[in-house]
TrEMBL record:
Transmembrane segments: 143-162
Bilayer topology term: Multi-pass membrane protein
Compartments it resides in: Cell membrane
Family matches, as SMART domains: HAMP, HATPase_c, HisKA
Full protein name: Signal transduction histidine-protein kinase/phosphatase MprB
Domain annotation Histidine kinase: ranges: 227-424
A GO MF label: kinase activity
Catalytic activity: ATP + protein L-histidine = ADP + protein N-phospho-L-histidine
Listed cofactors: Mn(2+); Mg(2+)
Length: 425
């Protein structure tokens, strides 16, 4: 935009300067020629009185004095063929003037002014003054140089003003674009300043209105999700009462633990729905959380005859995500193993420090592997699940500054590698 505006202003100013300066340049050339012609005519008419009544000797003396003072060359032609002053060829203009007619004519190398002097007893005399091309254009180059400098100055000032204007407009447009990027990144408090021309102010106002509407709609969506999740507390309470009514033993313990896990998940959903992006940062001990969740799922693995290999780093191993979010990630990964592999299929859980801070969590199983490469996409599932588990894991990892990698083992089975970033400094 800046370059286009400069080109447009430069083109318009250049056209205006050409339309204005070219006639002035031609006028300067015409005025210089007219001034030189007028001076030559005055020089010739100064000899008319002497040529009219004076003797040839007096006329010759006057011509010599006029030429000795410099100026345009002066020549006098008498009717008897005598030539006084600067020698010059008798041109057609001089021959015409001998008939009694004064005129100005173009000659080789300049212009000649011939004045016919009649009324002499010895016949008509012709006074000729020659004006060279240099005299006709004297001062024109200087005038043209001044006009060129003025034109260049006007063009330079115009480009500077246009550049300042373009910079101010680009700055406003770049500010609006940055606000849109901030909104896309999740900063719903970003607002565009209402500055500049009316059109840009209208764009900024529309963008700010959109930001406010997005914020309201997200708040409404969070409350709606929180309300729906809160409704799950009633059936959870019933399940808890049923679990408490079971005879004491391993089955009652397992059902109670499952109800506790479900209640924690519902609580997390409610908090997740109601918190903003500024509340997403957190930290926890990944080693402790992973050990707790692997121990929880190991009881179900023992019932299904699933071999479990655990290789967990010793605590503390801090990561840049909250405890509830990390618990959900581990549960989602282990739940996928139980949901998508047959009973008796073993799995491995490894947790190690990440280079640069954070942790690396790897869950590998000996099942059929991932059916396609789109398993990380939200809502995509190779089985009968919702396809949201791995997407939750991905978003949690990326939120902490990490990533998720899926792979199929060469010997069969799936491997999920989750990198969690370090805790905030």
């Amino acid at each position: 935009m800046r370059r286009r505006l400069l080109v447009l202003v430069g083109s318009m100013v250049s056209l205006a300067l050409v339309a204005f300066l070219v006639p002035l340049a031609l006028l300067a050339l015409t005025l210089a020629a007219d001034r030189a012609t007028a001076d030559a005519l005055v020089r010739a008419q100064s000899l008319v009185p002497v040529a009219s009544v004076g003797t040839p000797a007096a006329l010759e003396l006057a011509v010599q004095q006029a030429n000795s003072g410099g100026g345009h060359p002066l020549t006098v032609y008498l009717s008897n063929g005598t030539v006084l002053g600067v020698p010059a060829v008798r041109s057609d203009a001089v021959k015409l003037a001998l008939t009694g007619r004064s005129l100005t004519a173009q000659a080789q190398g300049g212009r000649e002014i011939v004045v016919a002097v009649t009324g002499r007893s010895a016949g008509t005399a012709v006074i000729r003054v020659f004006v060279s091309d240099a005299d006709l254009s004297r001062g024109v180059r200087r005038a043209w140089l001044i006009l060129a400098l003025v034109g260049a100055g006007v063009l330079a000032v115009s480009l500077v003003v246009a550049d300042r204007l373009a910079r101010s407009q680009i700055r406003l447009i770049a500010g609006i674009a940055q606000v849109s990027h901030d909104l896309a990144a999740g900063d719903l408090t970003a607002r565009a300043p209402a500055e500049g021309p009316e059109e840009l102010r209208r764009v900024a106002g529309a963008l700010n209105h959109l930001a406010r509407r997005i914020r309201v709609l997200l708040a409404q969506e969070r409350e709606a999700v929180a309300d729906l999740s809160h409704r799950l507390r009633t059936p959870l309470t019933v399940l808890r009462l049923e679990a408490e009514g079971l005879p004491e033993g391993e089955q009652a313990t397992r059902v109670g633990a499952a109800v506790d896990a479900m209640e924690r998940m519902v609580t997390q959903v409610i908090r997740e729905a109601r918190r903003s992006r500024q509340d997403e940062a957190g930290e926890c001990d990944a080693a402790r959380v992973a050990a707790d969740r692997v121990h929880h799922w190991s009881m179900l693995a023992r019932d299904q005859d699933r071999p479990v290999v655990r290789d967990l780093a010793a605590p503390p191993l801090h990561v840049g995500t909250g405890e509830e979010a990390l618990t959900t990630c581990v549960d989602a990964l282990l739940e996928n193993v139980f949901a998508h592999t047959p009973e008796g299929t073993g799995f491995t859980v490894r947790l190690s420090p990440r280079e640069g801070g954070g942790a690396v969590l790897t869950v590998a199983d000996q099942g059929p592997g991932f059916p396609h490469a789109r398993a990380l996409e939200r809502g995509v599932s190779g089985g009968s699940s919702t396809g949201l588990g791995l997407d939750i894991v991905r978003r949690t990892a990326e939120r902490s500054g990490g990533s998720v990698t899926l792979a199929n083992e060469p010997a069969g089975g799936a491997r999920v590698t989750v990198e969690f970033g370090p805790r905030p400094s």
